[in-house]
Design a protein that fits this description.
Elements: E1 4-13, E2 24-30, E3 33-39, H1 44-50, H2 52-65, E4 73-77, H3 88-96, E5 102-106, E6 112-113, H4 120-124, H5 129-138, E7 151-153, E8 158-160, H6 169-172, H7 193-198, H8 201-204, H9 209-217, H10 224-232, H11 239-251, H12 253-263
Helix pairs in contact: 1-2
The structure holds adenosine-5'-diphosphate and magnesium ion.
Residues 19, 148, 150, 162 line the site of magnesium ion.
């Protein structure tokens, strides 16, 4: 289960130039002391039509199962009283936000957004490039691109954030595995595509070995507790479709990985 906290203060709003949803940095009292969290104020429309909160939670949890780093997730209640003395723009944003718990991640100190101009070794010291590429294809994430990278770089690691647009219903249902092809929206624009594509053949042969290993051992039952928690908080998780998609990727892992490899030839 994700921890649930109550915000005790609103520290700042992350400007639209950095994140289009303008998340809030809030302070919460946790068993480990006061911590800052970046909380996403999705509208009810985004939550209901896009499944944004569930997608954020499930993708955050899944990333760890592929040994990809994420800031720890949480669900945060932002009490109405906190916004009363804040600027009017904040109050308007609060009013438009879905009233249920907000998805949040612990605010990471000393990180910078990834940019495409960095060297391959700079990335490979922090993250497995091919596993990230495969993972984003698995969660149907077109949002780890060369412009909006949604990858935060620290001195030791690279951390995945922002999964609201993953696992879109149209992308995970009715998939024809006999004629499976990966949509270029998940390949050519991906942050890691140029690095992976440029590599030499002997290296490419071993791409996705690690991903396949994690996929084989992926225990989708481990997600049940998160789906149950979200349901009990009033979210319609569409868990059947998500579980079914993940099982299909597992069952068709060779087809899936072969098409990833073809995308990089
Ligand atoms: N856990 C975090 N730690 C530090 N900064 C973060 C964290 N989460 C988000 N941010 C910052 O906030 C920005 C917007 O967050 P993001 O989840 O990408 O929202 P959006 O959906 O609005 O793009 C990020 O680009 C990053 O700069
Ligand atoms: Mg973002």
């Amino acid at each position: 289960m994700l921890p649930v906290y109550e915000a005790i203060d609103i520290i700042k709003v992350i400007p639209e130039t950095v994140g289009h949803t303008q998340p809030w940095v809030v302070l919460a009292n946790t068993p480990y002391g006061l911590k800052s969290f970046v909380a996403k104020l999705y509208t009810a429309h985004q939550v209901n039509n896009n499944n944004s909160v569930t997608n954020e939670v499930i993708s955050n949890v899944l990333a760890s199962q592929f040994d990809l780093k994420v800031p720890p997730g949480a669900l945060i209640d932002i009490p109405e009283s906190l916004q009363f003395k804040k600027p009017v723009e904040l109050q308007i944003q609060y009013g438009k936000a879905d009233p249920r718990l907000k998805f949040a991640t612990e605010m990471l100190p000393n990180v910078n957004a990834a940019v495409p101009s960095l060297s391959k070794s700079f990335y490979s010291r922090r993250i497995s490039l091919d596993t990230l590429y495969a993972f984003d294809n698995m969660i149907r994430n077109a949002d780890r691109g060369q412009q909006k990278t949604n990858l935060l770089l620290g001195s030791k690691g690279a951390f995945l954030i922002d999964h609201e647009y993953t696992l879109h219903q149209n992308r995970i249902t009715g998939v024809d595995w006999d004629n499976f092809e990966i949509d270029p929206v998940f390949t050519q624009h991906h942050l890691m595509y140029p690095y992976l594509k440029k590599s030499i053949k002997p290296k490419k042969q071993h791409y996705f070995d690690e991903f396949l290993e994690y996929l084989r051992t992926l225990n989708t039952n481990a997600l049940s507790v998160y789906f149950a928690q979200l349901s009990s908080e009033g979210f319609n998780t569409k868990s059947i479709n998500i579980n079914s998609w993940l099982s299909q990727v597992k069952q068709n892992s060779t087809t899936f990985v072969n098409s990833l490899k073809s995308s990089l030839e």
